[in-house]
Amino acid sequence: MRSGSTTAACAALVRRDLTLVWRRRGDAANPILFALIVVALFPLALGPEPEQLRRIAAGVVFVAILLAGLLALDTLFRSDYEDGSLEQLVLSPHPLSLLLACKIAVHWFTTALPLIIVSPLLGELLHLAEPLRGLLPLALLLATPLLSLLGAVCVALTVGMHRSGMLLALLVLPLYVPVLIFGAGACNAAQAGLPFAAPLLWLGAALVLALVLAPLACAAALRISLS
Amino acid sequence: MNALTLWFHKTGSPPTAYRLAGRIMPWCYGLGLVLGLVALYGGLVLAPRDYQQGDAYRIIFIHVPCAWMSLFAYFFMAANAFIALVWRIKLSEVLAMAAAPIGAAFTFITLVTGSIWGKPMWGTWWTWDARLTSELVLLFLYLGVIGLHAAIEDRRQAARAAGFLALIGIVNIPIVHFSVNWWNTLHQGSTVRLMGPSKIDASMIWPLLLMALATHVWFFGSVLARTRIGLLELDGGKDWVRAIALDDDKEAHA
Amino acid sequence: MNDFLAMGGYGAYVWSAYAVFFVVLALEALAPRTTRRRVLADLRGRLKRRDARNEASA
């Protein structure tokens, strides 16, 4: 690729973000630990009876991963905002939406993908039903990029605020609700023996739409926040 | 510049808008109050008892208009947010942010009166069906817009960011409503139709529609009141605001 | 009158719902007054400080 081209810029950005994550690879375990703790709280609160846990397993794992992702969302722009590279990114001649799409992709790869890999273990802790062993990671594979994309738009609106944690959760929750309903709904339907393809297809459609529109919305939101 | 354009630009200017809002506002409140009282008399006294729900159905005369208002306020907010983001019109920024707390209030009333109505009728204070869940999500959207607007120092940037959030949220409202439709709905279907016969008796529909009108008028009164304050905040350094601040002080100490 | 208040046995529900309606809307209408007073007071403070600064540097 030519050195000044947009492709080169995106590749450089991806390489930079991956390097930065690698330098603090211990931190990458935090979302996993958080999800683990959340999942562990439920048997402690509700009692260890396998039948009871099996009924709520898929939903609880989904919520735990959603919350872990929410906490991790803050790291998307924070360090870049603090050292000024975010402004440089916004000012660059390359399409901001494309650059942001790359950032979000790396963020998803380093925070959500480990969670998806760990999800069977989380499910096992709650005695997840047999037919869901493959379906849960698949549903998460469709849902988590959607959560990352929607979350990125909201983080862009609150970038630079000091204690934006609660506000971010409030902003992002209404957008997460349909994703959760469809994702966990597919798993619960499968568990009940009902057809579950439709919610997954809806998630897929929403994901495709978000892949195109969310980076654009994120770029617009970032421009508003940094103006 | 023709007369209409001139009028448009003049009305958009903060001091003119402030004065105009101040003149219209009391009329809106007054008219809203009068229409509301007439509607309540029609609903509480004149309308007959429902054969199925007895007198409990009379909650409809506040619950339904507030539900309609909670949606109308959001569209008002989103429309003004769109104008503010695209054309950067100050007045639209202020109008959009003024609508948010009023919309949140109406949404809150809708949820609480609905819950109170649900207890004797359905036997439960709450249920997670499409209408109730999407109304609750609407409340969260309003609170998010209000929260974001309050969290940013610069008033214009705050209005733009919160307005952007409102626009994203507007897509979410039908999505949440349809997504929750996977589950059985306990809430009744539409009774009042825009075209064609409604499934409700005439003696009950006129107080309902009158109350809907009353709440709309009241909403505009409130929006204008809050807009005036928003304009004062926005133009804090300007002479016209300083004159009002000093006048206000003189009045308070007179 | 008593029949009216009793609302066919549903009095508690109907009247508490109407109470919520009136109270919330009243609060919502009165809130701007407090905000207006606060905004103007803040503004006066800022103006005073600015005038004092201008005097001092003049």
TrEMBL record, chain B:
Ranges that cross the membrane: 27-47, 59-87, 94-116, 136-152, 164-184, 204-225
GO terms (BP aspect): cytochrome complex assembly
Keyword Transport: yes
Chain ranges of the Cytochrome c assembly protein domain: 37-187
InterPro entries (alphabetical): Cyt_c_assembly, Cyt_c_biogenesis_CcmC, Cyt_c_biogenesis_CcsA/CcmC
Cleaved signal peptide residues: none
GO cellular component, one term: plasma membrane
Keyword annotations of the record: Cell inner membrane, Cell membrane, Cytochrome c-type biogenesis, Membrane, Transmembrane, Transmembrane helix, Transport
Compartment annotation: Cell inner membrane; Membrane
Keyword check for Transmembrane: yes
One Gene Ontology molecular-function label: heme transmembrane transporter activity
Pfam families reported for this sequence: Cytochrom_C_asm (PF01578)
Membrane topology: Multi-pass membrane protein
Role played: Required for the export of heme to the periplasm for the biogenesis of c-type cytochromes.
Family: Belongs to the CcmC/CycZ/HelC family.
Protein name (record): Heme exporter protein C
Source organism (scientific name): Dokdonella fugitiva
Lineage: Bacteria, Pseudomonadati, Pseudomonadota, Gammaproteobacteria, Lysobacterales
Gene name linked to the record: ccmC
